[in-house]
Design a protein that fits this description.
The chain has about 120 residues and is mostly helical. Helices cover about 60% and strands about 0% of the residues. It is built from six helices and no strands. The longest helix has 30 residues. The termini are far apart.
Length: about 120
């Protein structure tokens, strides 16, 4: 009986630890203010294309999502079709929607202000 209770406690602790790690990982992803371009590799973009984009100054997914298609297509080795795919995949990762003033106010209220005394 005691051995069974011990196993159940151990199992419960393992489950709690797993849940804690998942929540921590999600919070870290939410707190990050940018997404590195390497994340597009998971969406089917080749590493060679990512290297070309980095050499051209596209280091984040946000930079690609906010760029014009012609700007992306001007990178050597990136065709119009690849530019379309890059924009599509980048816009799936970057929230491009409308933000209300209330949401902006809520985020700004979380900022820490340091008083300098002057």
């Amino acid at each position: 009986m005691a051995a069974q209770l011990s196993r159940e406690r151990t199992r419960d602790q393992e489950i709690a630890q797993t849940v804690f790690q998942e929540v921590s990982n999600e919070q870290q992803e939410e707190q990050c203010s940018f997404i590195l371009i390497e994340k597009l590799e998971q969406a089917g973009i080749s590493s060679g294309d990512i290297k070309r984009l980095k050499e051209a100054g596209f280091n984040t997914v946000e930079r690609i999502a906010h760029a014009m298609k012609s700007e992306i297509a001007s990178v050597k080795g990136i065709s119009e079709q690849k530019a379309d795919k890059l924009l599509y995949e980048a816009m799936k990762l970057v929230p491009m929607g409308f933000t209300t003033a209330y949401e902006v106010h809520e985020r700004r209220s979380e900022l820490i202000q340091i008083r300098t005394g002057s």
